[in-house]
Amino acid sequence: MEIKVLGTGCANCKRTITLIDEVAKAKGVTIQLEKVEDIHAIMGYGVLSTPGVVINGKVVHAGGIPSRDKIEQWLAS
To answer: Distance (Å, rounded) from C-alpha 31 to C-alpha 40?
Structure first.
């Protein structure tokens, strides 16, 4: 599972990366986690509010830190 966190390096973006990594490890799910900081690349996904989360090429979240429950749902699919 390829997960990209879109954001310019703000605290919410960093927390989102940490949270996704923690949940994946707790669930035993192998992921490829990538941070995308280039504003043009972020806008290419149509995300105007960060952090954004892209899973396997599909935007699943934008704006604010996703809940642990939401992340668990993403990793279960």
So the answer is: 24
pLDDT digits (tens, 9 = 90+) for 6-57: 998 889 999 999 999 999 999 999 999 999 999 999 999 999 999 999 999 9
Work out whether the CA dihedral 65, 18, 13, 43 comes out positive or negative.
Answer: negative
Q: Where are the domains of the chain?
A: 2-76
CATH architecture for segment(s) 2-76: 3-Layer(aba) Sandwich (3.40)
- The DSSP bridge pattern shows strands 2-6 and 52-55 to be antiparallel
Q: Kindly compute the dihedral angle of the four CA atoms of residues 45, 51, 57, 58, in this order, to the nearest 10 degrees.
A: -90
Q: Specify which residues 58 forms β-bridges with.
A: 55
